[in-house]
């Protein structure tokens, strides 16, 4: 991309991110983009010195930067600055379900249909270099890499209210609106949340967790085929199973063959060691009110007063994922698991816990969250090539949403 200006030509080059030379300039662009509209509250993300941290744990990933170079003549080139960046990753996920029999006469069983899916995140363009087509160039170059590595679909997630982002992808990059999950966020109080004494919470081994997820949730949309890698990752704090207090746990095989009437499962991912968040632009009055709630909650914990954590300073996050279960009391068991996860986050000095659920999922109403901190996400999807076989699912873009989705914590 070239532009004439002054005595030379300004060139925008899209290239791979180089951690040895680019980190400081990338952080400057990140900082310039984290500004709220008209001086309102904004959310700043500190990537803790690792711009690739949000894709680093995926099976395949890439980060690109857009760099402005001024050609000043006389065969001299002067690098001005990095003005944009984009991250992408690729994994294999469930996109649908087919029904088959192992042998003639066996009952028909649902089986997952997998596809190679790419994900775009962290697209940033400096406020001083927007409306120049740089964002589109970054997306197009990333999609080339996706296609070269066999991805069939690409998707992005953005705040439903982020009109510039939605417009860029749906009107200029060929994406279509696909799913509207809800991001549910809850502050970590100074007091603990209650967990029913009728429920027993078991921490599963990665092997037991993997077996339950594969047997019970592999047909869930967006389920990652490499779930074993997710559960064995050092950022995974554990997979927890809620069962009746008197249930005798002897392993996942027995559990799957004869499960209790009611149960729920949930895993916890430690985003705190990947990035920190901070709310900026708050008035002294808001900061003072938040501090007062924490003091009251700390001094009078028995009152169980809602308190706001130190969100106006850098704070950590725990991501709750892999939520599921069965039985008429399932959502209540899930709520107990949430209380357990909240208390774990309190011990780890996290500021908030968050999860993301389908708009159709009953957990949307059952999981405690603060509406002022929560929001509706928008997932947009694009088919990268028309030469892929539709197989037994057809075009995934045209499928109806299921009751739930499996949110991969590596990309939250």
TrEMBL record:
Keywords in alphabetical order: Acyltransferase, Transferase
Residue ranges occupied by any N-acetyltransferase domain in the UniProt entry: 12-194
CDD domains for this protein: NAT_SF (cd04301)
Gene3D superfamilies to which the protein is assigned, alphabetical: 3.40.630.30
One Gene Ontology term of the molecular function aspect: acyltransferase activity, transferring groups other than amino-acyl groups
Pfam families reported for this sequence: Acetyltransf_1
Record flagged with keyword Repeat: no
InterPro entries the UniProt entry points to: Acyl_CoA_acyltransferase (IPR016181), GNAT_dom (IPR000182), Plant_NAT (IPR052810)
Family of the protein in this entry: Belongs to the acetyltransferase family.
Protein's UniProt name: N-acetyltransferase domain-containing protein
């Amino acid at each position: 991309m070239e532009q004439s200006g002054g005595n030379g030509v300004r060139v925008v080059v899209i290239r791979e991110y180089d951690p040895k030379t680019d980190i400081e300039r990338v952080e400057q662009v990140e900082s310039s983009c984290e500004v709220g509209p008209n001086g309102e509250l904004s959310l700043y993300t500190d990537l803790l010195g690792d711009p690739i941290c949000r894709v680093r744990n995926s099976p395949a990933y890439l980060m690109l930067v857009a760099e402005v170079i001024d050609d000043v003549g006389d065969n001299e080139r002067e690098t001005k600055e990095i003005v944009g960046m984009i991250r992408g990753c690729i994994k294999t996920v469930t996109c649908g379900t087919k029904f088959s029999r192992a042998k003639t006469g066996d009952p028909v069983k649902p089986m997952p249909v997998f596809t190679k899916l790419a994900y775009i995140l962290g697209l940033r363009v400096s406020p001083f270099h927007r409306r120049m087509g740089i964002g589109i160039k970054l997306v197009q170059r990333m999609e080339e890499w996706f296609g070269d590595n066999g991805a069939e679909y690409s998707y992005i997630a953005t705040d439903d209210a982020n009109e510039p982002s939605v417009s860029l992808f749906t009107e200029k990059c060929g994406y279509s609106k696909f799913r509207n999950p809800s991001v549910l966020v809850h502050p970590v109080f100074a007091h603990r949340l209650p967990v029913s004494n009728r429920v027993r919470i078991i921490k599963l081994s990665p092997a037991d967790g993997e077996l339950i997820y594969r047997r019970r949730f592999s047909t869930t949309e967006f389920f990652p085929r490499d779930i074993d890698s997710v559960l064995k990752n050092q950022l995974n704090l554990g997979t927890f199973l809620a069962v009746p207090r008197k249930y005798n746990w002897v392993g996942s095989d027995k559990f799957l063959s004869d499960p209790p009437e009611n149960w729920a499962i949930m895993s916890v991912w430690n985003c705190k060691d990947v990035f920190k968040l901070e709310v900026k632009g708050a008035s002294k009055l808001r900061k003072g009110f938040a501090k007062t709630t924490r003091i009251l909650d700390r001094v009078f914990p028995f009152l169980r007063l809602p308190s706001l954590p130190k969100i106006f300073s850098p704070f950590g996050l725990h991501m709750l994922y892999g939520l599921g279960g069965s039985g008429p009391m399932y959502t209540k068991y899930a709520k107990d698991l949430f209380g357990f996860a909240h208390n774990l986050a309190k011990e780890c000095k996290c500021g908030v816990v968050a999860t993301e659920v389908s708009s159709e999922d009953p957990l949307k109403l059952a999981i405690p969250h603060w509406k002022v901190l929560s929001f509706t996400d928008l997932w947009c999807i694009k088919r990268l090539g028309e030469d892929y076989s539709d197989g037994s699912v057809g075009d995934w873009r045209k499928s109806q949403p299921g009751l739930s989705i499996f949110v991969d914590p590596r990309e939250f």
